[in-house]
Write a structure and sequence with these properties.
The chain has 109 residues and is mainly beta. It is 9% helix and 28% strand. The protein has one helix at residues 52-61; strands at residues 34-36, 47-51, 69-73, 78-87, 91-96, 101-102.
Length: 109
């Protein structure tokens, strides 16, 4: 006959984080991929052709495809979210879904 001994009580707490997932909604971590490109569309609906290293990184490394949403920043405080349109052999078209906004470089986004 087998006997079971109770060695003690185990308390399980739910995993707690210091911030909620919604705090990161505008960041690439858990949000949209954020990529550098020196030229941003000037307004909502504007299209920018992305070629070269950025194109390679987006399509081959990150494996982004048509209709994927991304954010572009220009390194001067400009940030715009948009969608990947047509993908060609040497580049892709990025269409802005909003007007570009200016972000204070000292605050994390």
């Amino acid at each position: 006959m087998l006997r079971h001994r109770v060695l003690g009580t185990i308390r399980v707490r739910p995993y707690a984080t210091s911030s909620s997932p919604s705090d990161y909604s505008s960041q690439s971590r858990g949000g949209l991929p954020r990529l550098f490109f020196p030229v941003l569309p000037s307004a909502k609906g504007g299209v920018v052709r992305i070629q070269g290293d950025e194109f390679f990184h987006m399509t081959k490394v990150l494996r982004l495809s048509a209709d994927d949403r991304v954010e572009l920043f220009n390194g001067k405080g400009g940030l715009v979210s948009g969608i990947i349109g047509d993908i060609h052999r040497t580049g892709l078209d990025f269409t802005a879904l909003e007007d570009p906004r200016l972000i204070d470089p000292l605050t994390p986004q």
